[in-house]
Amino acid sequence: xxxxxxxxxxxVRALGSIFVIDTERxxxxxxxRIRTIYSRCLAEPNLADDSAIRIVPxxxxxxxQDVSLGQTGVDVVLxxxxxxxxxxxxxxxxTELFLVHSAVLEGANSGEAVAFVAPSGVGKTTLAATLGxxxxxxxxxxxxxxxxSGQIVSYQKPLSQIVAxxxxxxxxxxxxxxxxxxxxxxxxxxxxxxxxxxxxxDEPHVAALPWQEAIELLVPQVSYLTRRKExxxxxMTFIKWAGGIQKVAYNSSESLAYLLDSVxxxxxxxxxxxxxxxxxxxxxxxxxxxxxxxxxxxxxxGHAIADRPQDALLVDGHLVVLALGQVVVLSDLASAIWxxxxxxxxxxxxxxxxxxxxxxxTLGREIMIEKIHETLATLVALEMVVLGQxxxxx
Length: 394
Known about the structure:
By secondary structure, the chain is α+β, with helices and mostly antiparallel strands. The protein has helices at about 5, 30-35, 60-65, 70-90, 125-130, 210-220, 230-240, 255-260, 275-280, 330-340, 345-360, 365-380; strands spanning about 10-15, 15-20, 55, 95-105, 110-115, 135-140, 140-145, 160, 170, 185-195, 205-210, 245-250, 285, 305, 310-315, 320-325, 325-330, 385. Strands 4, 5, 6, 7, 10, 11 and 12 form a seven-stranded mixed beta sheet that branches. Strands 13-15-16-17 form a four-stranded antiparallel beta sheet, covered by helices on one side. It is elongated.
């Protein structure tokens, strides 16, 4: 690689991937600016690295050169670069890494990564910028945890800050903001789900979440969950590594500093998976799944067949399934119906069995049958059950 080529390229590391930013069309000042905002992600030029992903910024060059816009044109381009690298890094991440939309900081207990999970717009970047001056900045975007070991991959990307009146966010490097560097080795510690509210008390309120609610809140914030080989097992393993998920209601980022000052660990600590299981206190087991039905499967009229969801686990006796891209904790009735159909029972026999086993004395037989059919319809909608069509009556 010639010196000229190196001058027109910048290599950055993001979540295990190397990206080459083509900077040829930028002036020298803005080339330096890109290097500054990515100061903690810089990768040394590597002539043998053929796996690097090339990023050629796509932007309106006339907008970029329009001096009447001041810094705005540059900010638009930088925002697209930062967003593009992050999205591509998430897409190319090794499946051993479990990715959760979070701000991540190193707590006072050295080596412990504390994650604050939240959807976009809640204030993860503000939290990271505010508290990162006192606690090591790991990321304002993504928690990347090795699901096998609980170790964290740091992603100290530029922070995307809102500027009043500006059409786009400003990209600022962590060194420019004076954010502390984290330890080289980090493990997953506590995980909080952010609930920022203007009417929240000045002192944040923290509450442990039942695993069912934790799943409901976490799933939308997990990147590429459905492409994982064992998505539900990985999700529950993540919850166990964290010793459970806690929800914090608060009104300002500053008020959350005490959560990072705390050096008390979860019962799971940083040990093995078995230790983390005792912290959450739930029993998890795999279940035998039917083979996926194909389009040629013949269903006998009046019968039903249990179809295979993408993934399923038994958690504390509850059937948790990943179906149609959504995670659902099935009711006891829905679980019983699915298992009995899996074991080959007819719909008629199923109704008779469940009325005997689960029947409520306060409910009449017809009402109970109606409940069973309503639940069956829910399983059909999730594509977990295929119904046979009754024969045409002529």
